[in-house]
């Protein structure tokens, strides 16, 4: 059985106090009601990481960052390295989110570099991929996702793949209220698993956790998670509201 995951991507939201408050209240919730069989991850902004790490006492929520530097250390003003992230107690890092690709021009080879550094620092990587609206409309979405995965991940060796989670996030669905249908999510996840199978074999492909992201909320989560190749979700907006995030985790638990 592969790991089911629900991860919250807070993006650039929540000031320090609000962030700690949300983390503490989620931690309290999952202390009383430990998730069984679903890994719950929260990914706050960098400056929250160390304090959130201390605040998560239940052991039932894992911590992740939203990005990392493409260099290991040194004179890179304003950057945060993978090993710094790891030193806070965080276990995961999101790499290749469409907002990084679009607004910060992060290309496939840079993302591969970040992925390698993150893995070397002992982090697990949530690697994002997904097509924009025009690509979905002109039918190139499978090809686009294939290229992102081939260039960003396939230089990796087999062992490295054990620490990779892929998040399929159609860009047209992120923060828009438009969600991929469960069928659209399933067929892309199947496509992704097929690519990984071709490259790394059945064992790695069957173990790979593939998350869906893009306007996932308490009312559509169960439907999306019911599909066989959808192993969980990467949640943006709804992860900022405790009740919504908890409801999505529970939807994952029950499907
Ligand atoms: P959303 O964001 O749930 O707000 O659409 C998802 C993401 O960008 O990870």
Describe this structure in words.
By secondary structure, the protein is an alpha/beta fold. The chain has one domain: TIM Barrel. The protein has helices at 16-32, 49-55, 82-87, 98-103, 108-120, 133-137, 141-152, 158-161, 182-200, 202-207, 221-225, 242-254; strands spanning 4-9, 38-43, 61-65, 92-95, 124-129, 164-168, 210-213, 232-235. The chain has an eight-stranded parallel beta barrel with strand order 1-2-3-4-5-6-7-8, surrounded by six helices. The longest helix has 19 residues, at 182-200. The model has no long low-confidence stretch (mean pLDDT 97). The structure holds 2-phosphoglycolic acid (PGA). The site of 2-phosphoglycolic acid has 13 residues, from strand 8.
